[in-house]
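Much of the work behind modern protein science is quiet bookkeeping, done one molecule at a time. Below is the pair of lines this work produces for a single protein:

***
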Amino acid sequence: MKSATGHVSAVKPSLECRHRRARGFTLLELMMVVGIIGLVVAMGVPAILSATRQEPLRKAVNDTLEICTHARAQAILSGQVTEVTFHPLTKEIDFSGGNSSAPPPQAGQASVNSVQFDQYVDIAMLDINLMDFGASDIAYVRFFPNGTCDETVLVLHSGDQWRKITLEPTTALASVGLVR
């Protein structure tokens, strides 16, 4: 395009250059993005592996706490003694007792009545009322209608992770701690 002075305008070639550049990414840009993604993934792998190694122990602790909490609540609500049965050799825990007419758990909260620990989780210690039941076939923890229970200490371990679950006898509330 010519201006009034006779000079040719450079508008058209600059538009063509812009259109050519907007078509895609260069190989260098793609390689940089792939390298950054690889670095982020490599940094996250140890965290993912440690989380999967702790998962069986975490699940065992949570299931045990849930069963004990459920047994305590049922004993108080039904006015009857409830029991949690431990099978240390087979690594199972069962809940029994209470009134069958007790209200069901709230929506979204499933009640666990029986659990078997993962093969990688071991019961290292089970003391009930200061007696060792770790090598027994069966042991019972009673929860009473007044909100108390048998004094209980349960130590679970998986790999190099250890957890101690303690039932406070005067309140029947469970607490979890690390074993060192």
